Fold these 4 entries.
Entry 1:
Amino acid sequence: MLSPLFSFAENHIQAIVAQWTVTTYAQSEEYAKRKWIPGFLDEVERETTWLLRHILQQAQKGGSIDYRLVENIAEDRKEMGTSQFNFIRSSSELGDILLRYIQQAISTQQIQASPEDYQTFQRDIYAILQQMGWHVEKGYESS
């Protein structure tokens, strides 16, 4: 997974997470329940940024990704009363936003990538999302 697209995504992680926060998370059931808690949204953004950066860095190294962090976050979300379905959907939407961000960067020539490079990146992101879904399930089952 040694693709310049992973590095580009990592370098633009703040913008990707900010877009996800506004378009997805701020509309979620979880946020609606907790938006009155001071600092809650900032903490979700920090956690999401940290997790996404961790996954992108591990993917760039070409090794296996440690998904225990996903399981731990899933355990927390279950304890908070967030449904597994909503948590997985939110994670998937983060992946979709990441892919759209990269597509836009390619189309505006912020980064050069062949169609094959983008297809490989897209395949890798979908594989990561699939693994995340399985580990979310494990996190929900373990608590």
Entry 2:
Amino acid sequence: MSTTTTHPLEADTQERAFFESTASSNAKAAYRRAVLRTTGWLPSWAERKRAGRKPKAGTKGQQ
């Protein structure tokens, strides 16, 4: 078993560019699932951002 602390794809700029150029959230989810299933974890740039919806503009603090 490898003892590296960074994901093997972490520094791969071509792989990161491919992931970031994918506009479809379904395609990104499929990519994440494939990498997760084959390596057991994700590079930091492929991890999901904070869960939840983004607040609507101009409604901060209003109800």
Entry 3:
Amino acid sequence: MKALVDGAARRRVEHCVVELGTLLDPACGSGTLLVEAEELDELAEAASDAPARGPNSKGNFEREVDAGKAIGSVSEQLGGHATTRYKIITDRFGGIITMYPIP
């Protein structure tokens, strides 16, 4: 199933994890994707090839992807270091709920 970034998901991801100045909210605690907003679609496309695990306890599916290049940093709680990996959470139809860097 293809992962899709719709308007609501884009706003949620940009607000919490994309380095876009005023949209970034460190209080979200999910790390920072250091990519341009346009690159979110590329990250979502790459996740479409990753196997989806789930459903999780909320009925959603999880995909972990290695971008092959540094795409951001994990949260301060996890050390704040650079990472090439990220997780995408999708609903059962492939709509992205959120995405964030992982160790």
Entry 4:
Amino acid sequence: MTAAPSIAPSLADLRSALDHAETELACADMIDNFGRREKELAHWRGRRDAIRAQIARIEESF
């Protein structure tokens, strides 16, 4: 039997996702509509912070 493929994202995948989240966060900061801006900023900050935490956990395991 062969092992099942890993469903965990690779470190490269996480770094790519982090770049994307940081770009989206910068774009969200330029939204003119205050309510939408705040909602988008909160979403992308949370996403960025979650990815950073995942990367830190992986790097700590090395």
